[in-house]
Amino acid sequence: MIHLSAFVFYLGALVPWIHLLVRGARRHTVFLASGLTGVAVALHAMALVDFWLTFSELPLGGLAPALSSLAFVGGLALVAMLLLREVARLALGLLPFVLVLQGAALALGIEPAPGDLDFQGAGFVLHVALAFLGLQGLAIASAAGILYLIQHHELKVKRLGRLFQFIPPLATLERVGGTGLSVGFVALSLALVLGWAWTVQNLGSLEIDDPKVIWAVMSWMVFLGIFAARRGRGRSEYRSALAAVIGFGIVIGTYLALRITAEGSGLFL
After folding, report:
1. Whether residue 10 is found in the same domain as residue 80
2. Contact, 4 vs 103, CB < 8 A?
3. Which domain holds residue 100?
4. Do 78 and 140 reside in the same domain of the chain?
5. Spatial distance between the Cα atoms of 41 and 7, rounded to a whole number of angstroms
6. Residue where a domain stops, chosen among 65, 82, 113
7. H-helix or E-strand containing 58?
8. Fewest CB within 10 angstroms: 22, 39, 97, 210, which?
9. Contact (CB, 8 A) for 150 and 167
10. Are residues 2 and 73 in the same domain?
11. Are residues 81 and 108 in contact, defined by beta-carbon separation less than 8 angstroms?
12. Is 93 left (phi over 0), alpha (psi -120 to 50) or beta?
């Protein structure tokens, strides 16, 4: 029930953000949007803690709990962005991602994993936290990329209307996207090292044919591809924004496909 309440407040927060986009800046509307977002994140935190206390299991195993936890990390990123006036409107690009994740988790049913986790303890929590932080860095870069592409188009067609005024400047979006990529890449790299170290120590090999290992390596390579797009001559910022949007779609789409089709409990990440 608390998970559903968090979803409702996330959805409610989207309304004033869209209103700001359509009608322009209103101080009370910004306050309402920020307040609803804050309440949604607080309720989401309560829901995850309630899950932990009820089932004596962190909400990290199983598809639905993992999606809800990832959505919560997105919510925390939203709150952090709202504290920075220059990038607060990036919430409009990231909030739909949080809504989709939490909505999918609710539809699947947020219940404990059917089997025991192979990787447990503090190391597991740190591994997943770093992996989620890596994904969230990519999500922020993707949200900035979406707005960058829209703003770039508005400038190209010389349409400097309300949408142009609402979206942060291109330089700001490029800087936020670059920061998200850098933080995400470092976090994901650390998560991979920690996970592989545990696997080698306890199982004797990296199990490179494991779907979760394949997905992790693919995600890491997506980051490299986006960094490569940021280099070189010409429209590197535009290429970077486009690559971040496409790369994030590939990573999340592959993640969901593997989690749904994995045999057994399908627990990974």
Report:
1. yes
2. no
3. 1-113
4. no
5. 9
6. 113
7. none
8. 22
9. yes
10. yes
11. no
12. alpha
Q: How many domains does the chain have?
A: 2
Residues 263 and 130 in one domain: yes
Tokens 């990290």 appear where?
Answer: 60
CA gap 177, 220 in Å, rounded: 17
Cα 255 from chain centroid?
12
Is 69 within 8 Å of 60 (Cβ atoms)?
yes
Distance between terminal CA atoms of the chain?
A: 25
Question: Measured between alpha carbons, how far is 130 from 245 in angstroms, rounded to an integer?
Answer: 21
Q: How far is CA 181 from CA 23, 130, 157, 196, in A?
A: 32, 14, 29, 22
Neighbours of 118 (CB within 10 A): 13
Domain identity same for 246 and 168: yes
With residue 182 as reference, give the H or E element that holds it.
helix 170-203
Which residue bears the tokens 């939490």? 102
Contact 12, 49 (CB under 8 A): no
> What six digits make up the tokens of 29?
């509307």
Global pTM reads 0.80
Residue-wise pLDDT tens digits, 211-267: 777 888 899 999 999 999 888 666 788 889 999 999 988 988 887 787 777 654 445
Of the three residues 113, 138, 170, the one that is the final residue of a domain is 113
Closest alpha carbon to 177 in 250, 226, 228, 129: 226
Residue indicated by tokens 């910022």: 237
The encoded tokens of residue 18 equal 């869209």
Q: What does DSSP assign to residue 164?
A: H
Same domain as 252, residue 164 = yes
**pLDDT tens, 19-53?**
776 666 556 677 787 888 889 999 999 999 999 88
